[in-house]
């Protein structure tokens, strides 16, 4: 499970990352609202932990923009602003839960687990078109046919299925799948996307991986 932390206090962001990673979550942190919105709209995260008072764009605006982008990722909003009006504004902006600072780490973890449980089957599988990606077995499944993916094929397919019709850039895929320090280049992404297209075809999937120049890849479904 991957969690994005949008928090301008870097020490707090690091402590949140350390806490969540100690519980088995994968985390990523950004430190201003504008970057947070851009990362959140990739659609590759299972949960957003969002501060309110931040440079570039406050948390309320980030939540509104993310929801306007049709991103349904759960949002846990953190803030020192504890009045009823502030909580109402946060919830109306699109937050699923509003936790005031300072907070107990046990309460934070309880909130995180509660929000993730609401996703139900999405925790174990992703669906697009007539095809499922089983997150436990690493298989693409369409009807009674299935095919196992390699580790990198799985990661790319997971990001694309989470993003759905939204574009995921080659740069993002290189960073997320191969890592910041990798010597991999965009051609590596193209090769693995080619592998995935063949495997989707082999199981009769109606998913198409479409490429848009300079924007990256997105999914479409149907037989047209």
What can you tell me about this protein's structure?
- This protein is 42% helix and 23% strand.
- The chain has 224 residues and is of the alpha/beta class.
- The chain has a five-stranded parallel sheet, with helices on both faces. It has a four-stranded antiparallel sheet with strand order 6-7-8-9, covered by helices on one side.
- Helix 2 runs parallel beside helix 3, helix 6 crosses helix 7 and helix 6 crosses helix 8.
- The two termini are 34 Å apart.
List the helices and strands and how they pair.
Layout: E1 2-6, H1 10-22, E2 26-30, H2 33-40, E3 47-51, H3 59-68, E4 75-79, H4 84-93, E5 97-100, H5 105-117, E6 125-128, E7 131-134, E8 139-142, E9 145-148, H6 151-163, H7 170-178, H8 186-202, E10 207-212, E11 216-221
Helix pairs in contact: 2-3, 6-7, 6-8, 7-8
Helix/strand order, N-terminal first: EHEHEHEHEHEEEEHHHEE
Tell me the β content. Answer: 15-25%
Find the count of extended strands (DSSP E, 2+ residues): 11
Large-scale geometry: elongated
Low-confidence spans: none
Lateral strand order in the biggest sheet: 2-1-3-4-5
The biggest beta sheet is recorded as: 5 strands, parallel
State the helical fraction.
40-55%
Kindly state the mean pLDDT as a whole number? 87
Distance between the termini: 34 Å
Number of helices, where a helix is a run of at least 4 consecutive DSSP H or I residues: 8
Structural class: alpha/beta
Radius of gyration computed on alpha carbons: 18 Å
């Amino acid at each position: 499970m991957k969690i994005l932390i949008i928090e301008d206090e870097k020490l707090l962001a690091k402590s949140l990352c350390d806490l969540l990673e100690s519980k088995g979550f994968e985390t990523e942190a950004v430190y201003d609202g504008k970057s947070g919105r851009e990362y959140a709209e990739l659609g590759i995260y299972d949960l957003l932990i969002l501060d309110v008072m931040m440079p570039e764009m406050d948390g309320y605006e980030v939540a509104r923009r993310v929801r306007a982008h049709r991103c349904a990722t759960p949002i846990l909003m953190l803030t020192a602003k504890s009045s009823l009006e502030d909580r109402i504004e946060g919830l109306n902006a699109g937050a699923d839960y509003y936790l005031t600072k300072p907070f107990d780490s046990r309460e934070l973890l309880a909130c995180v687990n509660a929000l993730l449980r609401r996703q139900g089957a999405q925790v174990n599988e992703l669906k697009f078109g007539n095809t499922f990606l089983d997150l436990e077995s690493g298989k693409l499944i369409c009807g009674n046919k299935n095919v196992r993916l390699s580790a990198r094929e799985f990661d790319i397919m997971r990001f694309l299925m989470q993003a759905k019709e939204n574009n995921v850039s080659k740069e993002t895929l290189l960073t997320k799948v191969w890592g910041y320090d990798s010597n991999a280049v965009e051609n590596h992404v193209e090769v693995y996307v080619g592998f995935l297209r063949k495997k989707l075809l082999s199981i009769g999937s109606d998913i198409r991986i479409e490429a848009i120049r300079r924007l990256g890849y997105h999914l479409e479904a149907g037989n047209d």
